[in-house]
Design goal:
Helix 3 packs antiparallel against helix 4 (about 90-100), helix 4 packs parallel to helix 20 and helix 6 (about 120-130) crosses helix 15 (about 280-305). About 45% of the residues lie in helices and about 15% in strands. Strands 9, 10, 11, 13, 14 and 15 form a six-stranded antiparallel sheet that branches. Strands 1, 2, 3, 4 and 5 form a five-stranded mixed sheet that branches. The protein has a four-stranded antiparallel sheet with strand order 6-7-8-12, with no helix packed on it. The chain is α+β, with helices and mostly antiparallel strands. A hairpin with a 2-residue loop joins strand 9 and strand 10 (about 660-665).
Length: about 725
Amino acid sequence: MTLQTLFGVCRFSIFLARDLDRARLLSAGHLILFGPEASGGGHLPGSFYYFLLAAPLRLGFGWKATWQLQIAMMSGAYSALWIFFRRRFGLFPACYALFCASFFNFATLLYGYNAGYTPLFTVAALILLCRAFDSDCEGRGAAWLGFCVICGLGIQLHYTFLQVFLSGVILQASSPSLKLRPLPLRKFSAGLLSFLLMLLPYAVWLAGARLSRPIGQQVLPFTGTQAVNVRIIAAHARFVLGWLPASVLARRDLGLIPFEALLPAAAAILFCATQQPELGDEADAARRSLAETCVKVLAVASAATLFSFGLALALMPIRYADTPRLCLDLLAGAVLARHDARLRRGAFYPVTLAGVCLLTAAWHGILWPGWMRALDFRQTAFAVVLGAMLALVVYLNRTAPPSFTELFTVLLVPLVLSLAVQDASATYARYDFPGVSDLEAMSREIYARTGWSYDEARVRIFYVNVRDVLTPAYVYRDIEARARPPAPRTAAAKFGADGYFAAFLADDPDAESAILRPRDLVLSPGIVPMLADAIKRGSIQLGTPAAAGRFVLIPYKVMDTEHLPRYFHNSSEGYALDALAPGFPEAPGQRTFRFLFNDCPQHAAACDVAADVRLRPRKRGHWNVDVVFSGQPLTQASDGVNMMWLETLSHPYFSAACRGRERRVLLADSLGIHPSRSRNMNGDLLGPYARSFDVDCGGPPQFVTVGYESATAFVMTRALEPRLKARALSARMNP
């Protein structure tokens, strides 16, 4: 219930839209054998992630169910964790393990990444691995087989699962030195074979791609041949360190420290383990033996995943730390279970749980000042009531009256879970990435005012101070499908808006006061100079703004269509292989041309940039010219989506040779992505980009030319040096 409150601040990214597009094709019967693109190139080895996404879509629940599925699977992970620790080690270790796991990186859920589906598989794999090397377990072979199958599926969700699988191999090889009972060779080999079988469909697809005979859904060429590149990951790390402020890096890295699992457990064991352990019965001996085995197994798993934890510290994607942190959390619970007989329960549990709860509040208060203001009283009260109900259940189901320590522990755990989730939602809601609720408010307002379809609206919305991987595609289309196209409001109809500036208030939630200064919002730092100059001189007129969530929607009307585009945009979608515009249709008396530019060394079709030109005669030698730039390299706002080839064209232009003289028209200062340290889209003008203007030629032009003065190419998130040279293509204007 509490996790569901995250939905309002969930972020809909290009990557999620791309994966949902593929999952929809899968649910419609189109074969897919590969997984999502990795940060360093290549694909995850299998399509299990797309099957997870396709399940709610196939059942008709819609795209929102993908987040609900993540929440349900995380609940399953916590349930499995609780059941295992509760049955094997008792109530207190189970509460402590659940307490530690509540510090999961909830930002993974907010972004809808594939890593958000991993907790259930991580917990299940680690539990099975403990059982596989438990000498007293009767089903060791089945546990190992289940572990390998889960790892084969988990690696199709995130690469960190490869390290979890390697920890099992390491345990088998080093079992004598760890004093563990190794698996029989036959059962061990069967598990390895089951792991490889999970990856077989991807191997078939990869072989087909390398032989230029791809099977199933198509992707960009680089993804079939480019493997994960560590150098690219290192280059991205340097890039992140270059543009992120040191304070942000420090807060992010400090927030990754699993203090809730390691520091309190170590300190409490040192100061509260003064009780002499009792001999107990056979059940107690078996419990201690399993706890000791789990400590060894989870220690190896934690060590094997430290590489991913290091990447999370060095790189921006902190989701790399999800699996290593869960390993450490389970390890802390196992260490506690191992020392359970020596603990003074009356001191350890109240001091540890209350102390870590206070430490959490202080820690996050230092890292993110003001986070307490966003706490939802109703959610906090719900957690308290839930804890009281659980305490009552424990009280009624015990043969002997439970101690105050037991009741206090059960009462506190739901509150800690609630605080952790609310902390996450409050922290990440303040960044420059609108939540789903903001996108819904924006889409609803624009659709109510204009009745535009999404295909029309997306090329007319220019985002200000918004992260470069935003897309409202699924949100807007949902609103479009549910509502009838309304008549435009009187004010909007009178103004006749050509498009909207959507200014996002990341740190100023008071949209009602911000709408009083629309000009200042639009003229934010880094805004496209051509647009800023046009607004200052009145060539772009701003209308009456409106608040929509944390957006301020400012309608605009282009007054000077001779020197400016009629509308413009800076957002992008998950890439497609048919990104070129269809071109102008032939008509009597008109001249149409298509100029194709391709600066890729391999000249792949995905690198094509098209400049479509249409000339229509006017009176007295005047010609109306329409120019449309389109193509994959110009359509992406993020250099992390199409990692093969993106471009920024500097000073694209059109020229006509008229009786020995050239008539040149500058189409834009730049066209394509414009990476900045802020990673927003303020400086972008993206394709498809259209201009319409008149040329006085005194007669039919002899030649028409389209070109650009230079270009910058981006490959695998890095700009190529030196800049690409000028390009121009011409065509004779036949009479």
